[in-house]
Amino acid sequence: MNTFGQLLRVTTFGESHGPAIGCVLDGCPPGIAIAPEDFIHDLARRATGKSRHTSARHEADVVEILSGVYEGITTGTPIALLIRNTDQRSKDYAKIAAQFRPGHADYTYWQKYGIRDPRGGGRSSARETTMRVAAAVIAKKWLAQRGVRVYGYLAQIGQITPNALDVAAIETNPFFWPDAAQVPELEAYMDALRKSGDSVGAKVVAVADGVPPGWGEPIYGKLDGELAAAMMSINAVKGVEIGDGFASVAHTGSQHRDVMTPEGFLSNHAGGILGGISSGQQIRVSVAFKPTSSLRLPVQGLDVDGNVVDVITTGRHDPCVGIRATPICEAMLALVLMDQALRHRAQCGDVGEVHPRIAGNTSITDAKR
Ligand code: EPS
Fold first, then answer.
1. Which of 176, 209, 305, 308 could be joined to 326 by an S-S link, Cβ 3.0–4.6 Å?
2. Is the bond preceding 219 in cis, omega lying within 30 degrees of 0?
3. pLDDT, tens digit, 9 for 90 and up, residues 337-360
4. pTM to 2 decimal places
5. Please, what is the Cα angle at 130 between 125 and 134, to 5 degrees?
6. What fold characterizes domain 3-361?
7. Which of 127, 237, 312 to mutate to test the pocket of ligand 1 (most atoms within 8 A of CB)?
8. Does the C-beta of 59 come closer than 6 Å to ligand 1?
9. Domain extents for the chain?
10. Which atom of ligand 1 is found nearest the CA of 47?
């Protein structure tokens, strides 16, 4: 399955070392201004080779708009985007072409299909996430026109957590870290980790401000359910939480409920979603990334014939895939929100329109925002 979404349908294609990667965004409304330059900022935020803390592969990630845009405006027809791969080094994968990297999708792809493209991980490579970010540039633009702002930050690397949540700091460092004072500590940690040849996990938080109440379809199209599936579809993701997530287990009901006042909600344990529908509060999704499985540290493993072998991965791998994942989580949040907004509009009327049975405007947001 390489497609997700209902009214806004995203299909991606391509392999890490194939000639190109691409996507088709179907169902996008007409009238959105889109130029090739619009993709540059977010694609660069996600790209490899931007700091010593990520993979050294250098891809230009130039977007070609193949269809769906006329004179710089979306026409309502399928939008096809293409990015040519230019910096593949497939010989790095020659040794492991017939081996399974422990912790990697090599093994399950082989078991399922009996064939796999081993070059750069083929379809299982994080290279594919480029196209999600590209597609979401359009979604973010559409959402912004409706007052919705999507952003994210890194909330943990290994054992290190932010001491502060300073939104202004996020884009000032290569980690998307919300506390600038901790950047030297992160750099020292990542330098030592990279030299050791090991990798580490991370947590990303993606948020959306300005989402009106009403987006999300109970029961099988819940906003939180679709966000969980969308985040889980990102490479290396092992956990997703909405709002307080697993911490809610230790709460009592009286602690956890978000009290409503005429001035707004007094807390946001729910992460902006009640019963699968947006409440008008900030949407907050946390995403757990496992440590990169491609390591140059040798490990005992198996080859495709069942022989015990020493597996050593060469190539240009990220010591922490989570570092580049903030724009990817933002992208999935934006694409799911836009799809849900279009579905809400289809069933209930215009975005932001108040249902006629609702007396006055009772919608409230976070009191403390
Ligand atoms: C990746 C392995 C590396 C990364 C790649 C993701 O590929 P290669 O060995 O070919 O350099 O560079 O990331 C990207 C190219 C990208 O654009 O994100 C993997 O195994 O997931």
1. 176
2. yes
3. 999 999 999 999 875 565 656 655
4. 0.96
5. 155
6. Chorismate synthase, AroC fold (3.60.150)
7. 127
8. yes
9. 3-361
10. 17
